[in-house]
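Technical note accompanying the year-one report. For the benefit of new consortium partners, we illustrate the data format agreed upon in the data management plan: each record pairs a sequence with a structure-token string. No post-processing was applied to the example shown here.
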Amino acid sequence: MDDSKALFDYWHDRVRLKNSELIADPGHVKTQDLRHDCTNYDELWRSPEVQRLEEPERSRVIAIIKYECTAKVLQNRAGRLRDRANELEAACHEQDQQKSKLLGLLKALQEKLFGKDKEIKRLEARVSSLEAENEALRSEAENNRAKTELVTELEQLKKKYNAVEKRRQELAKNNQSLGGKVAHTKRYKQQRDEAIVLIEQHKQQIAKLVQESQRLREENERLYQKLK
């Protein structure tokens, strides 16, 4: 075979690859290991067809076999690693897309949770306000009870005063001094009238407090139902 191209083509067609896992290994693999372990290089150059050639033709053919085995396994390895790189790039792109989607979902979830947290804080503040209002209502209720007791006591005093006044009027009839009787009666009448006016004023104040207490109690109940 004097035609060099024909000789290269001849041995190129006889090269066979094997051990594909080592060829596709992403780590560093020595070229001589690829040639010996992943091709039929040793079989080809040791074949009787080669060994019966005379020197320097035999060395020339072995060099061609070495070149073709090396070139073929390196080309195959490069293609495999390129395909692997493309697969990894596609997987990386897919992961980036999934990461972007997850980040979007996480952001939406955080916004929802943040909104819920704000609502919870608002409700907690409202609960604190209601508790303060309840305490105010209790204080007002205590005040109302004190006012009621005062009114009751004033009513009792009024009755006693009326009884005393009646008794004094009876005694005044026996008083020989008409001028003294009239002046005495007018003075006690004025005191009685002032006491009656004071009692009426207290009654009006108590009525207003009771009405406001009822309104706050209803508002408190409405807000409590809204929080459920």
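Partners are asked to follow this layout when depositing records. The helical segments are 4-14, 20-23, 31-38, 41-46, 48-51, 57-173, 178-227.
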